[in-house]
Amino acid sequence: MADTLDALRERINKFVAERDWAQFHSPKNLAMAMIVEAGEVVEHFQWMTEQESRHLNAETKEQVGQELSDTFVYLLRIAEVCGIDLIEAANKKIDLNGKKYPVEKAKGSNAKYTNYQK
Predict the structure, then answer these.
(1) Structure confidence at residue 10 (pLDDT)
(2) What's residue 46's pLDDT?
(3) Exposure on the CB side of residue 53, measured as CA atoms within 13 A
(4) How far is CA 38 from CA 43, 71, 114, in A?
(5) What is the mean pLDDT of the chain?
(6) Taking residues 20-44, what's their average pLDDT?
(7) How many CB atoms lie within 10 A of CB 113?
(8) What domains sit in the chain, N to C, each tagged with a CATH number?
(9) Nearest residue to 45 (alpha-carbon basis) of 69, 29, 61, 32
(10) I need a labelling partner for 90 at 20 to 30 A (CA). Which of 1, 75, 79, 84 fits?
(11) What is the mean pLDDT of residues 95-103?
(12) Which of 82, 68, 97, 95 minimizes the C-alpha distance to 29?
C-alpha cells in the first residue's frame, strides 16, 4: 500500500504506464476528468441538509470516499504531467492566503478578502 504522497504518485504512474494511458493524459483531459469526478462527489450531497451532510451513513461515506479518491488521483496526475510539486504549491498558497486572510480580520468570517482589504 502507498502510504505517502510520493509512494501513491509512483503507484499511480506505474498503473498508468502498465496500461499505456499516458497518451490520453493531457492536462486538459485530466482536468476535465477531475471535474467530472468532483461533480460526482457533489451529487451525493445535492439534496441533503447541512446536518445530513455532516452525518453520512456507512454506505454513502464509502461512495463519497470512492469519488474523492477518483478526484485525488486525477489531481495527482495533472500535477505529475505538468511537473508541479503539490506540497510546495500548497504551502505557497497557504502562505498567500495567510496574507489575504489575516487572522485578526478573517477569524469567524466567511467574507472574501476583498470585503475587508479596503
Answers:
(1) 95
(2) 96
(3) 10
(4) 9, 6, 27
(5) 94
(6) 98
(7) 14
(8) 16-84 (1.10.287.1080)
(9) 61
(10) 1
(11) 93
(12) 82
**pLDDT surpasses 70 at 117:** no
Cell readout for 72 is: 485525488
pLDDT tens profile 50-67: 999 999 999 999 999 999
- Alpha-carbon span 98 to 25, nearest angstrom: 33
First-last CA distance in the chain: 50
- The Cβ of residue 108 has, within 10 Å, a number of other Cβ atoms equal to 5
Rounded-to-integer distance, Cα 18 and Cα 23, Å: 12
CA separation for the pair 30, 34 (Å, rounded)? 6
Residues 25/81, Cβ–Cβ less than 8 Å: yes
How far is residue 14's CA from residue 73's CA, in Å, rounded to a whole number?
Answer: 13
Cβ burial 18-56 (10 Å sphere, 16+ → b, else e): eeeeeeebeeeebbebbeebbebbeebeeeeeeeeeeeb
